[in-house]
Amino acid sequence: MSSEVSEQLESVEEIVLHGVAASPGIAIGKVLLIKKDGIVVEKKSVEDASAELDRLQRSIDRSTYELDKVYHTAFEKIGVDKAKIFEAQLLMVSDPIFFEAIKGRIVREKKNADFVVDDEFSRQIEQLRHSGNEIFRQRALEIEDVKNRILRNLAEAKLKSKFEGTPIIVTSELTPADAVLLSRNAVLGYVSDYGGARSHASILSRSLGIPAVVGLKEATKHVQDGMDMIIDGYRGVVVIQPSEGSIKKYSDRKRWCEQLDSELLSEASEPALTTDGRRVSIEANIELLEELPLLKPHGADGIGLFRTEALIIDADSIPDEEAQYQTFKKAVEEAKPNAVIFRTFDIGGDKIFVEDHSEQNPFLGWRGIRMMLDRPELLKDQFKAILRASVHGKCKIMYPMVASVEEVVRANEILEEARKSLTAENIPFDKDIEVGVMIEIPSAALMSEEIARHVAFLSIGTNDLTQYLLAVDRTNELVANVFDEFHPAVIRTIKLIIDSGHSAGIKVAMCGEMAGNPLATVMLLGMGLDEFSAVSSVLPVLKKIIRGTNYKSARKFARQLLKMDSPEEIKKVLAEYLKNRFERIYYTTISEESLDYQI
Questions:
Q1: 522 part of a folded domain
Q2: Do 65 and 212 belong together in one domain?
Q3: Distances in whole angstroms, Cα of residue 325 to Cα of each of 249, 380, 392, 430, 542
Q4: Measured in whole angstroms, how far is the alpha carbon of residue 479 from the centre of its chain?
Q5: Nearest to 502 by CA among 457, 547, 436
Q6: Region 550-557: what's the mean pLDDT?
Q7: Cβ atoms within 10 Å of 79's Cβ, excluding its own
Q8: Second label for 455, Cα 20 to 30 Å away, from 34, 238, 319, 498?
Q9: What is the DSSP string of 430-490?
Q10: What whole-number distance in Å separates Cα of residue 574 and Cα of residue 514?
Q11: How far, CA to CA in Å, does 353 sit from each of 306, 321, 441, 521?
């Protein structure tokens, strides 16, 4: 960094950045910037292909050794279940088919190993990166980590992972290996330009108890080593060069948050029962087996959404029935005696394993149940895997991206075929397994009462429902500010869906991000929502709010909100309600302000 740029950074006033809250907690400390300058790969012709093959093999051996060390470090710090995250990377560097193809190109094309490795890996990475699915985009980062590890070892370069002091790590991308290896130091927190809350690195950060904020885009451009920084992993806020006032505010907030977290976790196992006796179910959204140990400590009443497409990100093809069964069985056994709702694959033509097909608009394309109905053999295999797992605990099945009654009827027919197939094979299963539908498309919302007649429950997916109702691509920065789940049209549609389900005599759940937003809890409760499903870390907060709320009063409050015509007004009223009744939760999870007295 030039002295001029350094002086400019040192002279800047407080900068506040907003990103993704990846791991809860507040940290106040000094920045340690870990640069990940891309390894420059040149395309070179070589005369001795055997020498390049030797270089490649040494790099593979070294990379395998490093990843094995990461695995064992993770095993010691966070246990075998979460350490399994690195098994996929170990399998990748030992994949004989993949690397035989690379070696074949080196011999045929007489090109350097660096170029061929970069080219082959980059093809996979780009395919995943342009996916409409956040899970696959996160997987692209992990594959890139393996690629960079091999390239770095080809160049015989070293990556520093040990240092002095107690810093906040700032980097462009936080990989799973980074999260584990850097934690061997006295790290206060992690900050990164890229990443999401559901990435492996974020999950590991939560398991390690290290606060993290990711997806900040340009955090690395604003900092240098030794700068003061505050990170708020509850709300996804980073403060660079904080003022004395901000340091005081966040020091207080840190103390209050830690006190509240301790209290909430101690009460997490208590039921979500309102003061006048209405009980609702508080469940967890998960996509990785590594998240299962978080269920009981956070008081989950089951798994309200198991994203089965996560099985695909570590595979070269869609897993067969047996592989799916083994995964589903583990989830069901861990959740007992509570239920697990398995959402069938929400994949499509923009993602992977679909050849000679591209999508101009994947959000409106060939995905979810419409794709699976066109591939009935895949859907039947998944049904059989879930049915087989149902003898080990309580299971439910849920169809994503449903747009019509006809799709539900056809999916149920394929499910019946799966039942008959297992019966013919004398394989036991729960004959009373419940089937539900995710309501996330406006047409399904308007037809929700008719759809409810064909299923045992409905679950509202607010992320896509909001996107489709408001005609907003939530990944498009130009219109992202228009995306608002508190828009009156969204709120009224949610109420319509809940009423439709109840009219049909079935329960209605919510598994979108709104279900985990404390600002919305009392409103959703008052609208009659039966089940909330969100990330495990927020479940104790939801339970606390519900236990302190009168259901009859919440119903009256919700009716008032439904009459409002602006999202700003709705959010303002909700914020005031939370502030007046659940002050500590408001100030630690919602408000930018600080309490003016000590709790």
A1: yes
A2: no
A3: 50, 13, 11, 14, 32
A4: 22
A5: 457
A6: 98
A7: 13
A8: 319
A9: -TT-EEEEEE-SHHHHHTHHHHHTTSSEEEE-HHHHHHHHHT--TT-TTTGGG--TTSHHH
A10: 13
A11: 21, 17, 25, 39
User: What's the Rg (C-alpha) of the chain?
Assistant: 25
Domain that includes residue 13, residue range? 3-37+160-242
3-state secondary structure of 365: coil
Question: Residues near 365 by Cβ (< 8 Å), separated by ≥ 6?
Answer: 132, 348, 349, 350, 359
pLDDT reported for residue 599:
32
**Structural domain includes residue 273:** yes
Q: Which single residue is written with the structure tokens 């089965």? A: 308
Q: Does residue 165 sit in the same domain as residue 287? A: no
**Cα torsion angle, 420, 421, 427, 432, sign:** negative
Q: What is the sign, positive or negative, of the torsion defined by CA atoms of 454, 512, 289, 291? A: negative
Could you tell me if 287 and 343 are in contact, meaning their C-beta atoms sit under 8 angstroms apart?
no
Per-residue pLDDT tens for 580-599?
A: 999 888 877 776 554 443 33
Together in a domain, 138 and 169: no
Domain of residue 315, CATH code: 3.20.20.60
- Predicted confidence (pLDDT) per residue in 72-93, tens digit: 777 777 766 667 778 878 888 8
Half-sphere exposure of 287 (CA within 13 A, CB side): 25
Going 359 to 363 to 368 to 374, the CA torsion angle's sign is negative
Cis upstream peptide for 540 (omega within 30°): no
What residues pair up with 532 in beta bridges, in sequence order?
282, 510
Of the three residues 242, 270, 288, the one that is the final residue of a domain is 242
Structure letter (DSSP) for residue 367: B
Number of domains in the chain: 3
Tell me what pLDDT residue 256 has. 84
Q: How many CB atoms lie within 10 A of CB 380?
A: 17
206: enclosing H helix or E strand: helix 200-208
CATH number of the domain where residue 181 is located? 3.50.30.10
Catalytic center residues: 200, 511
Q: Measured between alpha carbons, how far is 5 from 434 in angstroms, rounded to an integer?
A: 61
Q: Does residue 58 lie within any of the structural domains?
A: yes
Phi, psi of 410 (to 5 degrees): -70, -40
The CA–CA distances, whole Å, from 127 to 351, 401, 414, 494, 506 equal 7, 22, 30, 35, 40
| DSSP code for 40 | P
* DSSP for 213-271, written as a single string: EE--SSGGGG--TT-EEEEETTTTEEEES--HHHHHHHHHHHHHHHHHHHHHHHHTTS-
User: Which H/E stretch holds residue 30?
Assistant: strand 26-34
Bridge-based pairing state of the strands 237-240 and 15-18: antiparallel
- Of the listed ranges 74-78, 176-180, 444-448, the least confidently predicted one is 74-78
In terms of domains, do 234 and 293 share one?
no
